[in-house]
TrEMBL record, chain A:
Entry keyword annotation includes Electron transport: no
Lineage, top ranks: Bacteria, Bacillati, Actinomycetota, Actinomycetes, Streptosporangiales
Bias (Basic and acidic residues): 1-14
PANTHER family: HYBRID SIGNAL TRANSDUCTION HISTIDINE KINASE C, TWO-COMPONENT HISTIDINE KINASE
Organism annotation: Thermocatellispora tengchongensis
Top-level class of the enzyme under EC nomenclature: transferase
Listed InterPro entries: HAMP_dom (IPR003660), HATPase_C_sf (IPR036890), HATPase_dom (IPR003594), His_kinase_dom (IPR005467), HisK_dim/P_dom (IPR003661), HisK_dim/P_sf (IPR036097), MtrAB_MtrB (IPR047669), Sig_transdc_His_kin-like_C (IPR004358)
Domain Histidine kinase: start-end pairs: 335-552
Mode of membrane association: Multi-pass membrane protein
Protein name (record): Sensor histidine kinase MtrB
Entry's localization field: Cell membrane
Automatic annotation (TrEMBL), chain B:
Protein name as it appears in the record: GerMN domain-containing protein
Protein's organism: Thermocatellispora tengchongensis
Entry annotated with the keyword Kinase: no
Taxon lineage: Bacteria, Bacillati, Actinomycetota, Actinomycetes, Streptosporangiales
SMART domains: Germane
Domain GerMN: 220-313
Amino acid sequence: MTLPKAKDAKDAKAKAKPKDKRKPPARKPKRRTPAQIARGVRRRARRAAGKVRRFWRRSLQLRVVTSTLVISVVVVAVLGFFLMQQITTTIVNGRAASAVTDALADRATIVAQLNQTAEGPEATGAIGGEPGQSAVNSPIDRAANALANRAGDSSRYSVIIRNESLPGEYRATNDIQPRSISAKMRADLRDRQINDTLWQPTSLYYYGKSQPEPGLVIGVKVEGGYEIYHFIPLTEEEQTLQDLRQMLVVVGIGLVVLLAAIASLVTRQVVTPVRLARQAAERLAAGQLEERLKVRGEDDLARLAHSFNEMAANLALKIHQLEELSQVQRQFVSDVSHELRTPLTTVRMAADLLYEAREDFDPAAARSAELMQNQLERFESMLADLLEISRYDAGAATLDIDSVDIRDVVLRAVADSEALGEKQGIRFDLRLPSEPCMADIDSRRVERILRNLLFNAIEHGEGRDVVVTVGADRDAVAVAVRDHGVGLRPGEENLVFDRFWRADPSRARTIGGTGLGLAISREDAMLHGGWLQAWGSPGEGSQFRLSLPRVAGAELRGSPLSLVPPEIEMRRTWRGQATPALPPPASSSAPAQAPAPVDAMDGGAH
Amino acid sequence: MIAPARSMAGRAGAAAGVALALALTGSACAVIPLGGNPASYREIVKGDPLRKPYVRVVAVPPRPEWTPKQVVTGFLSAMASVDDPGYTVARQYLYGAAAQTWRPDGTVTVYDKGVLGNAPPPPKDATETGIMLKGMITGTIDPEGKYRAVEGAEDTLKDFRLVKTPQGWRIKDFPDGLLLTEDDIRRSYRPVKLYYLDHLQKSLVVDQVRVRVDPSSDFAETMLQRLLRGPTSGLKSAVSNALPAGTRLLGISTEDDKIIVNLNEAATNAISTGPDRDAVSAMAAQIGWTLDQLTERWDVEIRVNGEPYYQDGGALRVGFDRYGSFDQWLNPGRTATYFFDKGALHSLNQEGEPSPVPGVAGHPGADHTEPAVSGGARPVLATLTKGGSAIATAPLAEGSHWEQRITGTNLTRPSWDRYDNIWTVDRVGPRASRVLRFDGKTQTKVSAPGLESVEVRDMRVARDGVRLAAVVTTDTGTEVQVSTITVNGSETTIADPEPLVTAVEGQQIVDIAWQDSTTLLVLTGSKAGKEVLAVDVTDGTSESIKADARITSITALADRILAGAEDTGDDEPELLYLDPVKQTWTPLTKTPATTPLLPLD
């Protein structure tokens, strides 16, 4: 359970490292160059973008609200555009229709005036609104005056009457500029029949106004080559439409905001139960099997909660059943071990008798007696180990704590193993600190751990030296056992602690370990609140490190010894400096890089 | 079983909803809310009085195919166009150097009854031709805008010489200035009365000019710009201006029934520069009266740079009740009416009943002739006495007595001015006259270079105190002259006499009277009968009013024109007044009387 975590932590640290490497230049107190500032800005922007992206990916509500907002903006904009166009067309067409009616009524007057020669005084008198203007001679003047008086000032409409072929036959009322007649209008009208009326929305230019105003021009050609243009300003309509557009925009914005708010509310109603369900699932995954959701109503979410609760109940039931099964099995193993001891004792006594009397047997029988004795011993120790393991499984193991010097324990264990080592041609190299290393430990169990480790080293040591190192610091003591055997393949560092695991199944057990030694040792170490870890590399041998807190019950934060043997570490560092393929570290950071994996392995264990 | 039923019900409901929506949008249900309480409507002034409709001529460039006559017609109408101040289109009609050297901004010659000669079309290979323009000159407008009517006969106005160019016929040369028809003048120019002040800044003096229509600005704006430029040269030395120097017009707008005149900050100088009277109200009266020609007595508010006129935020807003009463003789209202009969003055009450005035003036006295009544709150009668060698006055009050004011040899009838001075002319010899004035204390001689070597038969001072009309007989005949009274410190001069009406052979000038400060009524008599001419002294135009043959004297004030008819044997002498609507003379009172009198005449 511990090691995977340590691995995660290592990964995390490894990821964090490049950031740490980039930070120092930015934090230097000296003045920063623009490039650095730009880099800093970019980094900050990237970090902010990352934060936003993470939030975006995590928040369902945000995504729903955003898409609602975008879609409703598009829909409202399109609808508003078409609505506005429709209203504009309607209003302009309505105004144009009434203006054309006015213009047609005017046309009759104008034509009458133009055809009348200036003779009858009653005709001249009939035109003038003002007495001062009554005595007008030319027909075009009379026509223009009549129109000017009828139209009033230019805010109603203005008129241009013209005849291109005759000199001096060009009149305009008020302040309309002749360039308000668009070229298209003029060209179209030239090709038309007499009395054809054309209208066109256009820009009207007035003297004294710098900006043209929107308006309508209505043109008609009458007899005698005269063209009559009416100019109707649409400023009021323009104002109305502008007000309308403003209102539409405000309403549209309000609608979009409202829709977003509604979407937010609705998703909240959906997301909140989902979030509760997720939290419940997380707690369930964390082992709180009694976690349940509240079921409200009959909707889909309620059914989800219901299903979740059922699933949780089923899981709890299954887990409970499996636990029971496991319990039964352990009990069974324990019981079998106990039950086997009684007959084994009898068998053992008989075997001892036979063994002691083996010299009287023929050689084959004597050999059998010896074999039986050996196997019985192994059987006994295996049975003892099985009992020990089942005690752990049952949680019945207790510590018998005493403050002892770990060096003594190491020396005792080494002394126990020395005979076996000599048999294999292995020398023990002890590296003990000079001062006592006192710790609150169960010396029997620790001695068993060390014995196991030493036996393991002897078994896999290939006859080379075994180094035993003891280290201590303020909080912890550690013992490392190093062999120079075949080592461990990657991934085997954790498998070695499994029950009955062996690196090479074809290999025979030379010393006759039970296959439970390392498993028991690990349980012992954990019982002390300590760690038992393995390091190995093919061809380099392996090292097992036992770290224990000095005070019983204290949490272990680090080990005084490194898991990787120092010589291996140094070799790696040297290679790292020599090989350019590795990331080019600043000279200052190179030494810091080397211990990092060590620290990571050490520190990450808790 | 329940769920399908519910979903079917839901579907039916949705269908009903869609049907309802369709019915609502598609049916004839009115969008405009109908019914409700009838709402009251507040009438607002329709239209903007500052922007009256008008017609412009648009100048058209000459076309290659036009005949010489059409080219000349086009040029004549291009000159009447107000669209482009530089006359670029009109210049296109001119040939060669004339297009550059022609200066249109000179004197405008106004003609009427213009006819272009009907010359046969020139042969195809002709390179030069001519067109005659015949017509009658009726007046001129000088660069200041002053119009002067001219008595003229039909004549050749201009012989246009035309040259053929690849682009068509062009006019070879044209004198500086413009040649416009009466129609063009009516269309493109408007008469504007500009109101200035006399030397005491108490009365408004009218200066009338013709202002060219400018389509790029309001006519009101054009009017005020012209007012700010100052009076025409004839009045320059006689009048003053309450608008401080450097005042510029920034804009004119209307708001409800109010005109807002926006001036620059120089206008505030009027607060401190009034000589003895509030120059601000004089300035407001000038602007108000000038704008009153366009509006129906609207209020005027003067602002400075768009802010209220006074520093403390007080608005300078004057209504007609304020600027209208600035000069009581511009808007006299109802004044007393008098008539003089057998040496006694009578007044007419509201019902037209005569009664003698109080005091000695109401008692018959045979040696008092040629009366004149002063204006003001306490009117005074002045008459010629002692056979025309003296002028005596008597207040129209109980217990008054005659006092002798002016003595001379052969005096004309007295004339009061608005400051209660008495003016007369002493005819010291056959062609020698002296203008005398009594200013309340002493009798002084007024320098009048134009009047001293002629025989003055009658003389009247206008109610604005600046103009003086005199009937004079010179070697050439009898005419009415109008002069200007200029006051320069203590020096008063009567200057710039201009002939207004000249009596033709066999015609007499019987009487003159000021109707208002710019209109002089001239009663002429001949064998054919009598005629009253209302002459505008500012531009010489006159309007004829039909007169009764019995009329011997006239008097007028604003819209009231009174006449005295003599005793012809068939009819009793009587007082007549001109009915302003029917334009006929109607008896004013039953009482036989001859000489009507109005104040200040």
